[in-house]
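Hi! If you just cloned this repository, the fastest way to understand the data is to look at a raw example. We've pasted two of them here, unedited. The first protein comes first, obviously.
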Amino acid sequence: MKKRITSIGSNNKKTSLLLLIAVVTFAAVIFPAFNQSSEAAAGQFYNENNVLEDLPDVMIELTGTETTLNGGTTDYVTYYVSHNISYTSICSIQGKVRIIIDDGCTMTVPNNSNGGVQVKADSTLSVCPREDRTGLLYSTGGNTIKLTGAQSTLINVATIKNDENSYVGRGAIAWTVSLSNISVTNYGIIQGPNGFYISCFVVSTVYNYGEIIGTKKSGIYDPGVVYNYGTIEGADSGIYSAGALTVTNDGTIYGVNYGIMCTSNGGIRTFINYQNGTIEGGNIGINVETAGAKIENDGIITGSNIGINNGYNITLINNNTINGNVSLAGTNTISFGAGSKINGNFSTTAGYKLTFTGTPGDDLTYATITGKTDLTNDISNVFFGDDWVVPPVLHARDKIVLIGGGTIANSPASKAYSAGGYDFDVSVENGNKLVAIPRLIEIALKDSDTSAIFDSANPYDFATETQGYTPKVLNVTVTNIGNAGTGALSITTAGANKEDFFVSLNSVSNIGPGENYYFTVTPSAGLSPGTYTATITVGPAAGNAKAVNSVSFTVSFTVNSAGPTGKDKNYIIEATSDTGSTITPSGEIVELQGATQNFFFKAKDGYTITEVMIDGYISLTPAEIAGGTYTFTGVMADHKIEVKSTLNSGDSGGKGEKGKTYTVTATADPGSTITPSGKVSVQAGNDQAFTFGAKDGYKITAVSIDGIYSLTQAEIDSGSYSFTIVMSNHTIDVKSAIYSGGDGKGDGGDGMLGYTDNSNVIDNSNATGNSGFPWWIIGLLLLLILAVLLIWFFLFYRRYYDVIKVGTSVTIVGKDRAHRKSRYSFKVEGTYSEVSYTIGEEGEKRIIRQTPNGDFSIPKREITDTVTIVAH
């Protein structure tokens, strides 16, 4: 019996080995990709800058059993919450740790007053959500997260909640007493009995761009510095403070009772409310119970009852709106900007300084106070800022309304001022306006249908001076309020002392309808003690036939021989500070004889006040400098106060300690270099430059500064970055990627990031390793090479196996076998005495010998025609 061979045998060991290699390689390359694509970790998350980015290449999945999460020194180590987990023990954060919580998942931490999660010294915890922002870090009580070490940092982009039923000492976030340089940045939601609970007198900073909610007490309880661009809300107060406090607000701060509540325990408080900022309390907008506070409002401050309460020796700058009463005690420095408004009553005790700034609109109104204004019979300290400008629309008889809208009690005495190019009187008119009346002389034709003569400058008393004075100037405006030209006018001086006054103009050719003309009157210099008077007359010149009225006014000037005796004597206090300090108020401060003036000074960040000089020769003691204030009482001469400072070079040992250095940590991935690298020590206040570049075949993709700020492409292309005036620790990190468009720049360095525990590692690299090398390309190349080898084998080198039974024959058709390049092998089943084959129909019989493997083979060179095999 003959049969045609068409099947491939299964007992070729080499073939099996090659197939095994193919299967293993295929599984190693392809299966991880399928596994990866099925993980919930694929996708994006909101990073520390609140920007969506792809999930990190390597993440460690949390199980709820960890007691410490270790992070990197410069780069984040990322941990992932893929399902609901609960911790029974406190979890500590050491280094830079990022926790990403998947959408719909909750990470529950223990109810513990010491914090379910503790962030240790010099460590950073970043809590990030996935795309839908539904991940939650939660505790039923205690403090959800507690920052327990100096220079610890929290960045929250997700939701952190605490359901504590009692607010005392509890919050979603808490600080430990007496730490320094604590920082929280919030882009998400923080909610608890107190959103934050921060122990008193802690140097802490909160940057809020999201929502902070205190369900029992305060949104933030006892912070140091708050920058708010989002929303802070509290069941009692938006912010509660028993210590020094600085708030910069461009968002919303709200409390059911107080927008901001400050007790009498703390230090200096500063509140800056920007144009888009709102500070609102159901009862009181801002409650200040300590002296020296500063409130600068360009937005809206609202209290249903009181806008600002218990202000004592404060600086209030209002350029927008305060809703509610404002009551100030002590010696206050007050500034009302043009267009500002208080919807309520306003009162201040004597000794205040009231300054008007800006330029009012066509209504000539600076400030509106809808309720009662009480200026305590004292407007001696009314001033006008450097930007005070009389509007160009000012006409004769116009009055500039400094405060209007309600009523003014305790009408103060009038006083003459010079500002904006005008001399004018300030007085209360009809009990409902504080007005500035420019000194004007108005001339009109007698036959005009308008009131003929108006003189607001009669009489005019120059301020009393002592010998050695500098003469003051009276500016006089002559306005034609008629409907025809005046013709020629003359300006004459009469009286016993007419030679003691200089008049800048003695004639005018003509003043048209509605037009103005100006001249000045100045007392002579060097006059002896006494009183000097003269009469100035403006009227038609000789030969002017037009019916023009004449108007006269009297000027008076008194000179004292020794010491000021007049109550209108002014003195100047010059207040200056250097670049490392501030003083309030600053510049040239004009004070009346016998007045009292307070000054407040402080150092800027990174500086220490070393000297405060009074009048150039008196230096305050260290204790007085530490007090931050100095008062001139009973002013009887000009004075100076000068604040000097030096750059801090100390550590915690105290201000001014020498030798302080900071560390700039410079790192680069394997595809890039940075010089210098590693931990670079920098002397406080010095600059430090770094240069970076890409290795061959790579391109710089990102340069991160302090883990927050990323350089622009132009800055990256420059290849360098400098830290200037270094006053804290910093980091700079260079990232790169393989670049197929050409060679990268730079050389040097090598680096790697590794973890000691990979038992829960999620590989989310999309077939890209941790170092960024595309290993999937090598895998595909191996598969391709293996496929070629297999094809080559089966086409050219494979052997055909079959089993031939004794007493039978097998025919191999020559045309099927002639092109094969491998020998033909087979086995024989049964007892045989001879195995032979013939080539072709008439071929010679050839005996085949058994090989050591127990099979039989026909050499490849003989498979050129039909082969017949016989075993018998």
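Ok, and the second one:
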Amino acid sequence: MKVITSHQNLDFDGLAAMIGYNILNKDSKMVVPPKLNQNVRAFYSLYKDMFPFIEKITFNINEIEELIIVDTRDENRIGKLKDAVGKVNKLVLYDHHLHKNITRTPTYELCEEIGATTTILVEKIKENCLDITSIEATVLALGIYEDTGNLTYNSTTTRDVKAVSFLLEQGAQLEIIRDYVTLNLTDNQRLLLDELLDNTNHISINDYQIGVSVAKQDEYLNGAAILVHKLMEIENADLFFIIVKMGKKVFLIGRSKREEISIPRILKPFDGKGHDQAASAVIKDVSIHEIKEKLIESLKLRLPVHICARTIMSSPVNIISASTTINKAEKLLHKYGHSGLPVVNSNQDDNANKEELLGIISRRDVEKAKHHGFGHSSVKGYMSQKPITITPDATLKEIQHLIVSNDIGRLPVVDNNDNLVGIVTRTDLLQIQHGIENKETEKNNFYLEELEKNTTDITELMTKRLPDKVMGILYLIGKKADKEGYKVYGVGGFVRDLLLGKDNLDLDLVVENDAISFAKSLKNYLNGKLKTFPQYQTARLTLPSGKHVDFATARIEYYAFPAASPEVEQSTIKQDLYRRDFTINTLAVKLNGSTFGKLLDFFDGAKDLKEGIIRVLYNLSFVEDPTRIFRGIRFEARFNFTIEDQTLLFMKNSLITGVLDKLPGEKLYEEFRNVFYEENFMDALMKMDEIGIFENIFPDLKLNENKIETISIIQDILQWYEQRSYNKSVSKEVLIFSCLFYDQPAPIVSSLSERLKIPTKIREVIFTTINHENYLTKKLEEDLKNSELVELLDGYPLETILFVLARKDNKSIKEKVYYFLENLKGVGISITGEDLKNLGIKPGPIYKKALEEVRKARLDGIVSTSEEELEYVLDFFAKKGERLNG
């Protein structure tokens, strides 16, 4: 049973999100909480019969297999269904409140910082092309309109607006929406509003205008949250808080117009919950005046200083043009003492008042490009294009988030016309940060807060997807690391595939300080066999089960020249992850006991996994290691992902500079072979052709339509062959290289084979396949007996036969080849040389000839039993004039 529910005091966003999920999953049951907001109650009483709502839980909670909670992450707000949270097989969350309250890690969650939870469900409805009724569209629109203040709150995003636009296209009725979103205040609400207006105090902290008001009610009054918005509008405040005593409880509700301010953070001393611009708390046994004093103390402590980009940016900006060489850029960086410079159109002068920004070139980019011999190239090919920019009014919080989450050192400031007007650097931000008197320890280093946001516990996921023995090994390794004083992490493909739900039990672990020493300490602990590689600072531990665990010291890599083998030095886990190829491979999971299962995501790898993006970490990654070009293409094909635009551009630029020329042929062959053995190798080959790899290595080679069609057929033939479970394996590289090379002259094929250092045996089969294709085709068009067909094809490698099958769209040829493979190739005979010896025939070359003749007879249906084979061989020798015993 699937059950959907939402929070008590249900608002339209919660109600609409429930309905949205039910549209997507018709077999789910919607359980409405007993307490509904006033306007929702009015709507519900009129329209409830149009939806399959359940008001009372009459079923056994233990029968729930999947529980879906929308518009809240707090299990204490879902009533009786709270008891099901720890019992259900699957727990699913949809929300736009990012503060984590639920005690169990969800099986699946989609929680995003947007105006309304309903927007997430509407996007899925649109994505799945589902039809919805006018009333469904109306209630979905109500959910978005109410939670975004009719699309006016700062939390509103373009996604919310697009969702409403879609719903209006589906027939959402604005007259109904108007009746419920702008519901008139009740008499009691008006009385409370008047009391709050009379009791409002205005205070100013860090240039923010704040309203705080108090009131008392004998009984609980629904809809007090509506009044906070009205008070904020009436008083024109940046923030407004009301403290209302209702019965024995005090309700503290806060709202903000300023997106840089987190209301839950301000209400932290009261255990407040909500999203950044709207939160509340319920307090017992404390007077409203004590709460007010404590609130003002929290505001003074937690409100950020009101600083924007305009107040801290540097202007005018030192710039360079896109045509500037790397050498000149280096001199300018040294001259100005900057770590990076904005790059503008080549036809611009040095006046930064009206500059079209193209990108950013950093000192690190320049140093690496120069180190690899590209000093005379223009910066355009090595700059970061489409840089992240901010407006002059960008808040400190926005600047901080962009710099930390994107690991960048500077943010260009542009006006409404995208003209460059200034620049804010990490140094500017740190100076501001340290120039403020911080009264709260947790604010001393804003990186910590960002890091915590990027840390997720995946212990439950690991337990669910990894075999018990593997989990046991990881726990023991973490426990030993604690004891020995090491930090150890699971990294790379193991973590990536764990999150993707794919099988990958290759345990790659990174150790901070010394992997070899740590692995030695584990040798006896896990009763394993150890092999160390000091030059690479790595070790491999083989367990009694045969399972390997690979250990590597956290390290940075330095490339002496393009495509060189890296030199390594010890580093931290973050630096180790930064040296990796793509963001999706930068995820790590902590294995130490106290933090076991914590996911580290410094570079938004999880986000790129979710969005299906292949993104490189830095500009010169492909110059330093060209094999990453092939790996990116393989990952795109394997996971059906998309290589991000700038990453694709970096690939193309590196090819233009000739980085593949520096790769040894053996390495190139290995990379091609790896591509060929991907399941979706056709997609990978198409991408290789698209970005110019074939043209770069083989100027005369074209991946034309005929070759693409042939390779597609080869893919189908290989699938067919593998399904037959034949004993002999097929060399994919022979088939695909043969397809790529078949239209080239023999000297060119030899040259290409030598460039790729194709192994001699593979090369010979490729030559045979290309050179004998036409001969085989002509012979197969003849009318052949079974024995003649076998004699023809048995003399060729399997790959040559399959290549002919793929290349020729001839029914007769296909029938012969398939018949040979399925019915003739494995046909043998019963008699042996021993039988011939028993007949008195002197052993010699004639044995082979005799047995071959018997096999031909068997293939052609002349004989079918061992007795008939003996008779046939007797006749054979009689014709030869051989004298037999007896």
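That's it. A detail worth noticing about the second one: Residues 348-353, 434-455 have pLDDT under 50 and may be disordered.
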